[in-house]
Specification:
This protein has 402 residues and is mainly alpha-helical. It is built from 17 helices and no strands. The protein has helices at 9-35, 37-44, 48-72, 78-97, 102-113, 116-129, 136-164, 167-188, 200-207, 210-230, 233-241, 245-272, 274-295, 299-315, 317-327, 332-359, 364-401.
């Protein structure tokens, strides 16, 4: 599964850009419903917590689809596989646009989600193959930049369009992003040869290594913290900050700016220290989420808090993705895809946790605080793994000295 690698920026820019276009579309369809949650709930005649379970359905589909689709497309040339995955994305969004009822919308969201994990998993391998090792985290971050930029442009536009025109038309517009991604991938990604038949048993064995399991658990908890608040960001702002839906759209833009800053900053710091960057940003997630109920009592405080939170939330993505690819060297593609599934398991966990807090009578402020607890659990996992690694190094040093 070796790939040629070049350090020339001119050779990597357009391929990374094409991957970012696909990530932009995926980010818009993943995060768009969060801003449209009240509109979808009203259109489908369900409660907001029930509509919030659409987020969980998408996340579960990613989690299941990530390993299955990665292994299914393992022998395909990577460019063709990525284009096929974006075709699934396009069909799923079209199905969402015409869904006649809530159940069919859930099914459509699951279909849409099947491409997600494999796209980012295979895409991460392609991105890393384009640059030297010391630049890999930044290359992965460049692809994920499309996901974050979606939160500056795609998600607010989808939210506004859903509020003004209709959420069905918003999904139709997202489907057009899938078409644009397929054209971009076909034009700029290198063709590449056929992949190798995967040794499923050997690759799955790699995923059971303790360090890989710790990384996946860290991803689940970190993403869970993020989505506990993000799933309910629209009603949280309307309840705590007492703002209009149009103001929520503006806040989504600020969150997107934070996400973009975080992806860039996370990639740069992860090139220096993967675990160090994780400790810094997981701590910042916990602090910002715990403070959000107080900050959100004013518009200025909400704006500042969401930019800081958004920066920290997405700064953990490049180090986590790079960490799992390095530790699971025997199955980097599968591990990378499964880690994306873990992100979305965290997505489902966060959405379900927020729904549980609300159904138990908790406030939207309590939703944010519960997410801060998940961030602290993720930080504890990183510290535990770091301590275990230091112990192993000390034991090896003692053995060599003896």
């Amino acid at each position: 599964m070796s790939t040629s690698r070049t350090s020339s920026p001119s050779h990597s820019t357009l391929p990374l850009l094409s991957l970012a276009v696909g990530a932009f579309g995926i980010g818009t369809t993943e995060f768009g419903p969060m801003g449209m949650l009240p509109t979808i709930a009203q259109g489908m005649d369900v409660s907001i917590p029930t509509a919030g379970m659409l987020i969980s359905a998408y996340a579960i589909g990613v989690m299941v689809g990530a390993p299955v689709m990665t292994l299914l497309f393992a022998r395909w040339p990577r460019r063709r596989a990525l284009i096929a995955l974006m075709a699934i994305f396009t069909l799923g969004n079209l199905a969402s646009a015409i869904a006649p009822n809530y159940t069919s919308l859930v099914i459509a969201r699951i279909i849409t989600s099947l491409n997600h994990g494999a796209f980012f998993g295979i895409g991460s391998i392609v991105a890393a193959s384009l640059v030297p090792r010391e630049k890999q985290a930044s290359a992965v971050a460049a692809m994920f930049m499309g996901l974050t930029i979606a939160n500056i442009g795609g998600v607010p536009v989808a939210t506004w369009f859903g509020q003004v025109v209709g959420w069905r038309e918003s999904f139709l517009g997202i489907a057009l992003l899938g078409v644009a991604a397929m054209l971009s991938l076909g034009a700029f990604l290198p063709k590449g040869g056929h992949g190798e038949r995967p040794n499923v048993r050997a690759e799955l064995r790699v995923l059971t290594q303790p360090v890989v399991l710790v990384i996946l658990a860290t991803t689940v908890m970190g993403a869970g913290a993020m989505f506990t608040l993000y799933t309910y960001i629209a009603p949280s702002l309307e309840s705590i900050t007492q703002v209009s839906p149009s103001y929520v759209t503006g806040m989504l833009v600020l969150i997107g700016i934070g996400f973009t800053l975080g992806a860039k900053l996370g990639g740069k710091l992860a090139d220096r220290s993967v675990t160090g960057s994780l400790m810094v940003f997981l701590s910042l997630i916990a602090i910002s989420m715990a403070a959000f109920p107080w900050l959100a009592t004013s518009k200025a405080g909400a704006a500042i808090g969401l930019v800081v939170w958004g920066t920290a939330a997405f700064a953990v993505v490049p180090p986590l993705q790079t960490w799992v690819m390095r530790e699971a060297a025997g199955a980097p593609g599968l591990a990378s895809s499964v880690n994306i599934g873990a992100f979305n398991l965290g997505n489902a966990l966060g959405a379900a946790l927020g729904s549980a807090v609300l159904n138990l009578g908790g406030s939207y402020g309590a939703v944010s605080i519960s997410g801060a607890v998940l961030a602290l659990l993720a930080l504890l996992l990183v510290l535990t793994q770091l301590r275990r690694k230091q112990t192993d190094i000390a034991r090896e040093t003692t053995a060599e000295a003896g």
